[in-house]
Amino acid sequence: METKMDCTPTSCTPAAADVDPNFFKDFKRILTWDVSVPPRTILDVSFPVGGVEEIGDGDNCQDAYQYTTSFIKKNGDTKTDRYCKGGSVTQLDFSGATTLTVDVPRGAELTGKVFSINARPTGSRKMSVNVDQGIVVTIRRTAEEPECDVCEGEGPRQTCDPSYQRLPYNPNTTVEFTCPKPEEIFNMDINRELDCTETVCSGNSVQTKDIFSNFNRTFTWDLKVGQSQTFQLDFPKPGMRQIPEEETCPDDHTYSVVTYLRTGPTSIGTFCKGGSVTTVQVRFKGRVALQVPGKVKVDPVDFKVSVGPETKMIAIAKVDLPRGVSDTVLFSANYLRQFPDEQQMQWSFNTPGMHNYSVSFLDQTYPECIQDDVVVEYQKENGKSLQLSLTDPQPQHQQGNFEMVLKNCQTNTTLPGLTLRYKVSVMRSGHPVLSTVDLTKQEGISLLLEKISEDPFCEMSINSVVKEKILVAAGTKASLSFLDCPNEDVRLTATKVIDCQRKPCPSTALSVPVLDLSLPMPLHSFTWNFTIPNNSTLDLVAPVGNLKQSLPGQECSRASSFRLAEFDGFPIGDFCFGGTIQKIQVHTNASITTPGRDFKRSTMALLNVSVTEEISEGLIYTIIPEVSSPTTLVSPNWPNGMKKLSTISWIVHVPDQYKALLKFVNVSQPKCYKVHAIISVKMMGREEEMLSRTEKEQMEKELLVSQPFNLNMINCKPETGNLSLLTEVVLQKKLPLLAIVLGLVGALVVLGIVLAVVCVLTRKKKKLNKENSAYMAKGNIFRPSDRHFTKTRSDNDSHVYDSIDEFLVYGHLLDKTPYSDSLPSNKMQAQDSLDYQDRRMVDNELYTFKNTGDINTIRLSAVEPESSMSDEYL
């Protein structure tokens, strides 16, 4: 019986294969249903409870009740499968027109519903892809089932193919798969060609763009240089590890290097991250590939590509053998197939110092040589070489760097060829450095040795017990051993505990004690740890002079410096000799650390330390400021903040003849929890404060203090921020009191003199305003008392003229007729003449009359006048 069933993309008619259970029950029956579906439609066939089970071509169902499905694939092939009743498969999916056949044996009853069908659109996957310039993406089918096309583009220009698609450079293209899970069917090959000249390759840093992240991906880089040249791959530390070609790497990132010879592609090797191979040089032309499975994020090594040297080798691998005990396994090119005929490959090994290496062949096949022999050649740094065969014993327990070259002969290609798997073993060759430390005679001194390098092969031991950190306790004796530990990789520190709680401590001059030790490394630092009673203070003073704090621009030399810290490690500051700090007082247990000195050479005293009575603050500096330059004061742990709830005070001594200008250069205030942070200034001997500011108040820039003072800081418990202070003290000369008084008196005297002069001049001016003036024709108005010269007219020649034009003076009195032969006679008295001047009011500065005096003459020319006028002139 044949039945046709038609489906749309969403449903089928009829939806089930219903059959009369007694239909020709006495006969063998073959029931066929032809189901047609539109393109891109999936047909779902569901079986009743119990399901079906697929069987092979030569198998038969036990009850002879058999289902057969058949559909034509897109490539034209017909796929046929057979099933029996009673399996676990309850649904079958088909991607096209399908024929279902049921063979029912004679006498067997049919179920009312043989199967049911349903149609649904084919699931698809569409994605936008950005293919960079120089990149070509190739999509290849790797699984035969199910049906699926890969399409590139959209609309009428879309091209589809069931097995292959090539995507060249395109900043924005669309890829569509006509199945819901294309990552199970297709793989991606993402290829880039790197152009290399004679000296450099473009894009020397190989980077990978992660596209099609759900698919299995193979990233490939094709490189080509001159026929005798090599392209060089430099891998970042720690390098690469070679594995057999058929294996994959634990991190799902598997690298392979291939070279193209005339005989065909040859695998140089397969590699994983984390090994000793640092460089691979490949001759002429090759490919680097990285395989990453689907749904794994690409995290490649950032290897560099460059042009290498010329060589006759097909490849050169550079190997940095690790320190310590290790085995490095390597493979010849084309391992498990055959090494190319008449070719050679080189490995260059860098052996760490104080290590021995041994070469062992693990697995090899021997070719049948037609010409020449297979040779393994070793080349040492000193130029010595050694040629061996595959069967000879290889080098054992050797030192130094070396090269190994594998040379193949001309082989009989009908027989197995040359293959080699070998290992290079490395072990330490050095002898441990032994030291004995005896601290039984050094009271309170202990030693600490720590490894400070990342070298894991430095081995330290105390009394034959290997440890990463060694502590030689005070008063003990120990045997130390150092294997492969350079001196600069081990830090040695010494500590002396001075306990002043159990018994009083006298004043002590600190100096690094003489330590007669056999240790090879230098002393890095020496620390004194002081413990004092709660009601005591630790006083620190310089043996000579004062102390200086190390600050930017005022650094201390390492040879004479020390670091002061509280016992819990909180730093106070670094100090040395030659400054303005007369004394440091610490109201807590403290540690003093100085850079190391020579064990066997005593040094001068670094510091004088004594235990005194308790102070009210946690820390007190006594300061003697410099006159010639500013004195800088900083808070503990500057520029970082003070310890929470701590206090500090500076006692600043100001000389009698000076005053101090306090400059607050850098103040950092915290945000406090409950209590306030306070900065205050108070003159010594006075209760009132000149300045007091909390963290919420604006701080002054400067403050002038005329006598010794205290600068105090109290820290709060900060929520955010830190309390820190940098201030400068500048001394300024005071002006003496006597000089000030004399200056005021002098100013008053000068002011009185000025006022007197002003009064005299004012009176004089009033008198002058009452005097008469004389008029001269064509002349100036003048007063007889005008004082235009500092000398009198009789005392100088200011009234003498070289010549006088008489016509201009007397012309208005003359007739217009010419002069007569003689002048008119006009007798005048001397006092009526122009020669007359009465000097009784002008001869002294007070303008008073003379008691007596003769008539004074005024000369109008340089000629001396006669005692009386001549009769002729009159």
UniProtKB/TrEMBL annotation:
Domain of life: Eukaryota
Assigned keywords, A-Z: Membrane, Transmembrane, Transmembrane helix
Spans traversing the lipid bilayer: 737-761
Residues of the CDCP1 second and fifth CUB domain: 14-119, 208-308, 518-594
UniProt entry tagged with the keyword Phosphoprotein: no
InterPro entries to which the protein is assigned, alphabetical: CDCP1, CDCP1_CUB_3rd_6th, CUB_CDCP1_1st, CUB_CDCP1_2nd_5th
Domain CDCP1 first CUB residues, every copy: 125-196
Keyword Lyase: no
Domain CDCP1 third and sixth CUB: residue ranges: 321-413, 617-729
Annotated signal sequence range: none
PANTHER family found in the cross-reference section: CUB DOMAIN-CONTAINING PROTEIN 1
Name of this chain's protein: CUB domain-containing protein
Species this chain originates from: Oryzias javanicus
Lineage: Eukaryota, Metazoa, Chordata, Craniata, Vertebrata
